[in-house]
Amino acid sequence: MHPFPLEPDRAAMTEMGRLVLERVVDRTENLAARPATSALSPRAEADLVESFLAPPPDRGGDLKVLLARLDQAADCALETAGPGHLAYIPGSGLYSAALAEFYNRAVNRYGGLASVAPALAALEESVIRWMARDVCGLPEGSGGLLTSGGSMATFSATVAARHHRLGEDLACGTVYTTAFAHHSVAKAARLAGIPAARIRTVPHTPDLRMDPHAAAAMIRADRGAGLRPFLLVATAGTTDTGTVDPLHQLAGLARREDVWFHIDAAYGGFFRLTARGEERLAGIEKADSITLDPHKTLFMPFGTGTLVVRDIAALHAAHDGTGSYLQDMRAAGSVPDSGQLGPELTHEIRGLRAWLPLHLHGVDAFREALDEKLDLAEHVHDTLSGVAELEVPQRPDLSTVIFRVRPADGSRAAAERADEASRRLLERINDHRRIALSSTVVDSRYTLRVCVVSHRTHHDRIAEALKIITAEARRHTTA
Ligand SMILES: *Cc1c(COP(=O)(O)O)cnc(C)c1O
């Protein structure tokens, strides 16, 4: 086939589009049958990786051949989009969002300054306001920024908090979070110029939530020592266990101690669309800023995160900047310039990939899907709680269930043997290639997690997962 020119004609565009669409539809249709983890041998995987390190050729190639190569690369992976992905926090990737993104990239409108494409900027703002006000319950005057993910959202929140509370004198600023906070919280603080030694780990209560009394004591002790506490970061749905920190109490503490209150709801935030989620995330509306990750619990493609803030002016004050080359740009109207709210200037209209699915499917479709995840997680909890060989330490707040092999007795040696047995159990479960689970450490114990987030995971796959887990747990001689 003749290589396609940089600017293909209508027939060529249509042909190229058809080839890509066919691939994608085939892949998507077959997701349920695909292995949950890569089926390649380590040797085959290494060869494939090596082949993809080659530089591009001078003369173009055949699209069909290239797409077949892409499929090989995509197959050499954890199947993050499939129904069996119960590891980490799944990102399932809506088809409608992919189509929106294709349109978006082909039209290629500028997203850094609102006046360049004002209606599309308004479309993006509508998505942000929906997340800030309808999803999180923040008041008028709230707003935010679409980011590439939760880490970037937390980074901009930290910069805003720092600017607002510390000005330019960073040296004595201190940050408070727990051992279960996502590592992006400490990373954001370091990137924002806060020394690692000023990032405090607040103890947690036995149910793995931040202890507000301990947080209060630490803040007061630091202030007494001449430091400047400026940021308290709670988690609404920890990555490890899906646990929600006591948001009301922590909001009260932040207010009394006059520190910025950020909530990392990258995983948990969108569950507020459901009745159970609204109850469990009560207090989220008191935050100064909130991290959300549409690429997790709104099923968007990776690269879709959000920061919402109570007071958009605080975010703006920390991030604004301009240059004389921008003097021809009209001042923005009611829609803020996203380039003045975060570190990036040029970027795509990020809101489009959320706007189209939200308008096409309606909010209820997302609410129902998230409700289903909560049901499935409760079912996992109840079923695994009935397996004598397993220990299920807590009821899930959201859609993550943790479990591990039950130790023979309370001794340290028995706990170590159980940890080893749990490690082998995870391998055996994942070796089925129907589901992928992951592990973490909870209170020094090796712990497995089932995290139900994909919009493609339904009761049939969870029933199969429970059969596999139960059978493998029973095959074990208990530690
Ligand atoms: C995933 C996650 C993050 C990090 O978000 P990225 O989108 O991966 O950058 C932060 N916090 C929590 C609670 C998360 O689950």
Automatic annotation (TrEMBL):
Q: Which cofactors are named for this entry? A: pyridoxal 5'-phosphate
Q: Which residues carry this modification: N6-(pyridoxal phosphate)lysine?
A: K296
Q: Which Pfam families match?
A: Pyridoxal_deC (PF00282)
Provide the Gene Ontology terms for cellular component.
cytoplasm
Question: Sorted alphabetically, which keywords does the UniProt record give?
Answer: Decarboxylase, Lyase, Pyridoxal phosphate
The molecular function terms of the Gene Ontology recorded here are:
aromatic-L-amino-acid decarboxylase activity; pyridoxal phosphate binding
The source's domain of life comes to: Bacteria
Q: Which InterPro entries match?
A: Aromatic_deC, PyrdxlP-dep_de-COase, PyrdxlP-dep_Trfase, PyrdxlP-dep_Trfase_major, PyrdxlP-dep_Trfase_small
Biological processes per GO annotation: carboxylic acid metabolic process
Could you say which protein family the record assigns here? Belongs to the group II decarboxylase family.
Under PANTHER family, the record lists:
GROUP II PYRIDOXAL-5-PHOSPHATE DECARBOXYLASE, MIP05841P
- The name this protein carries in UniProt is Aromatic-L-amino-acid decarboxylase
**Protein species of origin:** Streptomyces bingchenggensis (strain BCW-1)
